[in-house]
Write a structure and sequence with these properties.
The protein is an alpha/beta fold. Helix content is about 50%, strand content about 15%. Helix 7 (about 190-205) links the parallel strand 8 and strand 9 (about 210-215).
Length: about 325
C-alpha cells in the first residue's frame, strides 16, 4: 500500500508532516510513503527523525499553495505545487491514496478535476467522523457544498453509508437526516423533499434510514451517518469543536480549584485523559473526500505528527475498502 503525502501543506510543514508520515511507515511494514514537496526541505526534515528509510521516498515539487491563493484555480496556476504533483501521481496510479493538510478549497478543486469523481456522483463530499455516545458519527457533508439539491443529499447518504460500513466496520449503519425535529413534516423545502426519497431507499433495503435527526440526538448516538448540506454541516462541526474545547477548559479549571478537587482529579485522571483523547481531532487524523475515484484525505491545517500519522492510516483503510468500486456498483440507486 503506497500513500502519497503532501509534505508542504499545513501550519507545521514540513517537519511535523514528515515525522508523522515516517512514524506511520515505521509502525506499518505494509505501507510505503511518498513525500511530495521541496526536496531539500523534506530530506532535511526526515534526517531529524532518523532518515527516510527503505519504504519512504521524495518527489520534488517546488511550489506551495498557500491560504492566499485562489482555491479554485491555484492548482492550475501552480502546476509544480505539492498538491498538484501529488494528486497527479495518484491519478497516474503511482499511489493508492493522498493525504494533505493544505488548503481545503484547493484540495477539493484539484481532487475533483484531476482525480475526478466516480461517474454519476454529482458532488464530492467531506465526511469527518465526530465523537458520539456511540461508535462515532460520519457527518456528510461538512463544508464542501454549501447549497445542495435532493439528489446531492441522497448521494451523500449512500456515500456515508458505504464509508461507515466498509471503512469504520459499522454493520448496517443508521442514516439520519439533520433537521430541526424528528417529525417528517419538519424542516425547510430541501429537507421536506429529501425525506421521502431516503425513506423509499430504506424501504427498498438499500439504506438503513432512521428518519429526521436533531443534532443533539445524533451526538447522543442516534445514528451512524448524519446527512446534511455543507453549510449546516459546517456549523454543526464547528459547534461540536467549540463545545469540546469549552468543556475541556471548564473541567480543568474545576479540578484545579481546590486541594480536594485536585485529589479527585488524580482519581479520575485516566478517564479524563481518555475523554480528552476522544475530542482531539488528532485521534481521527483527517476528513475524507467521498465520491472521488481514489481516496483523498484532508488533514487539519494545524495537524501535528500524530494527526498526520493517523491520517495515513485512515487513507490506507479507505484504499483497502475500495469505496469507488462500491459506489460504482450501486450508482443506479443513487440518482
Amino acid at each position: 500500500m503506497k500513500i502519497i503525502v503532501d509534505a508542504m501543506g499545513g501550519d507545521h510543514a514540513p517537519q511535523e508532516i514528515v515525522k508523522g508520515a515516517l512514524n506511520a511507515a515505521k509502525a506499518r511494514p505494509d505501507l510505503e510513503i511518498v513525500l511530495v514537496g521541496r526536496e531539500e526541505a523534506v530530506r532535511a526534515a526526515a534526517e531529524q527523525w532518523g532518515g527516510l528509510g527503505e519504504r519512504s521516498g521524495v518527489v520534488n515539487a517546488r511550489e506551495v499553495i498557500d491560504m492566499h491563493d485562489d482555491p479554485a484555480t491555484a492548482f492550475k496556476v501552480k502546476k509544480d505545487s505539492s498538491i498538484t504533483v501529488g494528486l497527479n501521481l495518484l491519478k497516474a496510479g503511482e499511489g493508492d491514496a493522498f493525504v494533505s493538510a493544505g488548503s481545503t478549497g484547493a484540495l477539493l478543486s484539484a481532487g475533483t478535476l484531476l482525480v475526478k469523481r466516480v461517474r454519476g456522483i454529482r458532488r464530492a463530499a467531506m465526511a469527518p467522523v465526530l465523537p458520539t455516545a456511540g461508535k462515532g458519527l460520519v457527518l456528510v457533508d461538512c463544508g464542501a457544498n454549501a447549497s445542495c439539491t435532493v439528489e446531492y443529499l441522497v448521494q451523500f447518504a449512500y456515500l456515508g453509508s458505504f464509508y461507515a460500513e466498509k471503512v469504520l466496520g459499522i454493520e448496517r449503519p443508521r442514516i439520519g437526516l439533520l433537521n430541526i425535529g424528528s417529525e417528517d413534516s419538519k424542516g425547510d423545502q430541501l429537507r421536506l423533499d429529501t425525506y421521502p426519497v431516503l425513506k423509499e431507499a430504506g424501504e427498498r433495503g438499500e439504506l438503513n434510514f432512521v428518519g429526521n435527526m436533531e443534532a443533539k440526538e445524533a451526538i447522543k448516538g442516534g445514528c451512524d451517518v448524519l446527512v446534511t448540506d455543507g453549510f449546516s454541516g459546517n456549523v454543526m462541526l464547528k459547534t461540536v469543536e467549540g463545545v469540546g474545547s469549552f468543556m475541556g477548559k471548564e473541567l480543568k479549571g474545576m479540578f484545579l480549584r481546590s486541594l480536594k478537587s485536585k485529589v479527585a482529579a488524580l482519581l479520575v485522571k485516566d478517564g479524563l485523559a481518555a475523554f480528552k483523547d476522544r475530542l482531539n481531532p488528532d485521534t481521527i487524523g483527517g476528513t475524507p473526500f467521498l465520491g472521488l475515484q481514489k481516496p483523498v484525505i484532508k488533514a487539519h491545517g494545524g495537524s501535528g505528527a500524530r494527526a498526520i500519522e493517523n491520517a495515513v492510516y485512515q487513507a490506507a483503510a479507505a484504499a483497502e475498502a475500495d469505496l469507488a468500486s462500491e459506489i460504482q456498483a450501486h450508482i443506479q440507486h443513487m440518482r
